[in-house]
Design brief:
TIM Barrel; three-stranded mixed sheet; 13 helices; binds iron/sulfur cluster
């Protein structure tokens, strides 16, 4: 069976449109262009390996009008749609040539959500059963689909995602008035959690994405909500996307959200997931904003002089991870090494790939403080609520 020229032009457009979806850990760096015109992206798999991923939408013409989105009914993109048989065949050809190891399928809502989701499920089924693809498969779940479709998606995919886009019903109303935060989105994630707990499915959890800025939320609200995503909904990752206004959309005139804000949110997210911080400990100012000038871990350290300096040769693992510049892996290596070989001075830190000037001032080495920086003495930041 041959694929038509129309298929390739639609695929190129839809793969281009699909790159905006972040909920799968891909990055554009090192992306690879196929001779047929589509890009493959390097994606980090749940096991930490990197695979080339085809990321594509089944359709880009949506009946909804989310204010920030290029695919809404305001008509800023040329509509295109892919048939499941064609897309599955194309993917199988890439597999045969060993060009791809992962597939991400999403779609705008161009029809009844149940029908659009059926197309995605049909593609996934063909790829898995007919073409025997055993690699990573990610499926987007659309608001309005049935519980049988959620289960089918979780039987086929390694991961599913639901883009919440905002942090509360009120915030979602501002940017996506046709969607219900609780009934359409949160309820999907709750069902994913319940199915994962009760049934033997391939899927190992869900991810989500939040658009930062256009609904007017503060960083404090986002940090509180990210905590809820991990503790209540058991999500594997939350992705943050700084809003870049798209010409022709209802939110085209908004000021773009600065990228440093997205970066600070990712740092806060790491502190919650990997460093044992609670949401209340992430420092924000009186407006609920993260600092532009310093990362949240450094800000926390500056706000807690009572915690420092820490004796590097006997501080507990969890305390070492609070030192600016020391991550979980380095902290563990220090704890394992110092039993037989105590650290004597700041330059010993470099053996653990720790930046000496960043971490040294917060530490004692066998009772001696060897470094102090001006930044520990000068600090202007008022913590929020
Ligand atoms: S439902 Fe999704 S694709 Fe449709 S307009 Fe909203 S964000 Fe865009």
């Amino acid at each position: 069976m041959e694929l038509s020229a129309d298929f390739y032009s639609n695929l190129t457009r839809l793969a281009q449109d699909g790159r905006h979806d972040l909920a799968c850990g891909t990055c554009g760096e090192g992306r690879r262009k196929l001779p047929s015109g589509q890009w493959l992206y390097p994606a980090v798999m749940p096991d930490g390996r990197t695979q080339w991923m085809l990321k594509v939408l089944m359709s880009n013409a949506c009946v909804n009008r989310c204010g920030y989105c290029a695919f809404g009914a305001h008509g800023t993109t040329e509509p295109a749609r892919l048939a499941p048989d064609d897309l599955a065949l194309f993917f199988s050809l890439l597999m045969k040539e060993r060009k791809v190891g992962a597939l991400f399928l999403s779609s705008a809502i161009c029809d009844r959500p149940i029908r659009v989701m059926d197309d995605m499920l049909k593609t996934a089924l063909l790829v898995r059963r007919k073409y025997r693809f055993r690699g990573y498969l990610h499926l987007k779940l659309l608001p309005g689909i049935g519980s049988d479709q959620i289960l089918a998606a979780m039987q086929l995919a390694d991961r599913v995602s639901v883009n919440l886009e905002a942090v509360s019903p009120e915030r979602l109303q501002v940017i996506a008035p046709e969607k219900s935060f609780d009934d359409d989105l949160l309820s999907l994630l709750r069902q994913v959690k319940t199915i994962g707990e009760k049934q033997d499915v391939a899927c190992r959890g869900a991810t989500t994405q939040i658009v930062v800025g256009p609904s007017g939320e503060s960083d404090r609200e986002i940090v509180g909500f990210m905590n809820r995503c991990y503790s209540e909904l058991d999500l594997k990752r939350v992705y943050y996307s700084a809003h870049t206004p798209i010409p022709g959309t209802p939110m085209a005139d908004l000021t773009p959200t600065p990228l440093w804000r997205e970066h600070r949110l990712y740092q806060s997210d790491w502190l919650l997931r990997q460093y044992g911080f609670s949401a209340d400990e992430i420092p924000t100012d009186e407006h609920g904003s993260l600092s532009r000038d310093a990362d949240p871990k450094l800000m926390w350290a500056r706000l807690h002089p009572e915690y420092f300096p820490l004796e590097i040769n006997d501080a507990p693992l969890e305390s070492l991870m609070r030192v600016p510049g020391i991550g979980p892996r380095a902290a563990l290596r220090i704890v394992n090494t110092r039993r037989s070989q105590p650290l004597r001075e700041p330059r010993d830190l470099s053996a653990f790939h720790i930046p000496v000037r960043r971490a040294g001032p917060w530490l004692l080495f066998s009772g001696q403080r060897r470094m102090r920086t001006q930044s520990q003495l000068q600090f202007e930041f008022s913590p929020g609520a």
